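User: structure tokens for this one?
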Amino acid sequence: MKYIVRILVIAEVIGLITGSYLINNNQEILGNKIIGFSALGLAFVVMPVFIIYRFSKSDKSKSIFSPTEKNEELEDLIKGDKTID
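Assistant:
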């Protein structure tokens, strides 16, 4: 998956560079299309693949709220034993 993300990013950067090159060489319509498709690819292909890759390995138990688990710091704040720094 790591290599897929890298290949996609490299392909998109090559697309952006190619589109910029074509715009500078008086082929503006084709250059704008290539840049547009590269931007769409970055937004709708590369970013979701990257997000899936990064968050598939992470520990999700830290970010899930569990109402049955006691939060001692919060209880101390409610009682007034502790202040917020």
